[in-house]
Amino acid sequence: MNDTCRLYTDLAWLWPLWGDASAEYAHYCRHVTSLIRQYAKLPVKSLLDIGCGGGKNVLNLKKEFNVTGLDLSPTMLAQAKELNPDCTFAQGDMRTFRLGWGFDAVLMDDAISYMNSRVDFAAAFRTAYAHLKPGGVLIATPDVTIETFRQNRTTTTPAARDNLEVVFIENVYDPDPTDDQYETTVLFLIRDHGRLRIETDHWSMGIFSLDTWRQVLCETGFEVHESRYDSGDEAYTVFACVKVE
Prior knowledge:
Elements: H1 24-39, E1 46-50, H2 56-61, E2 66-71, H3 74-83, E3 88-91, E4 103-108, H4 118-130, E5 132-140, E6 154-161, E7 164-173, E8 181-192, E9 195-206, H5 210-220, E10 222-230, E11 235-243
Parallel strand pairs: 1-2, 1-4, 2-3, 4-5
Antiparallel strand pairs: 5-11, 6-7, 7-8, 8-9, 10-11
């Protein structure tokens, strides 16, 4: 099955329905903010959200910081701008982009999962490092690691708005545990005024051990700290990484 990434192109209009910005995203952003305040070695006013998607984290983080969002998808950036017209956004690839100025903090949330090779994974962290001021903090959260991955896990998320009802069915599967990738497949059950439409999407994601995360972050030049974030449904390792040059 080939990668399609339709959720970031022709199906991006569904993204606002998947996840509540004022609940689950707000809870995570409070944890991010507390880690930044704890580990930063400078006053934190500016934050770069790498892989900002539709801007739900930006919506919460802008209450504390002057936020710039970056994403590869112009469709998702349009959503982020509509949700956050008071923030700055730029289009770019997290492996290679350079804005030309530094930030007090950087967030790399689940978008880092799209780095499905060790080379791309390391390149994304070098990008984050390049955009941090000395003493600034990178917050990075693995969606899954080798230690937490559950083979063939399937989750179902219902959502509704006006006359639109959607069920997001997400399945993860690793056909080759010896490489650095796993597959995410999403089935969208879309009912518009009760009429059913079925769409599918598929991505190859990156999966690395916690030790690989630690090693790559240290090799990039970060002072690495770890915390646990409990979303209520799952617990995640969160890396708080200080640029110490």
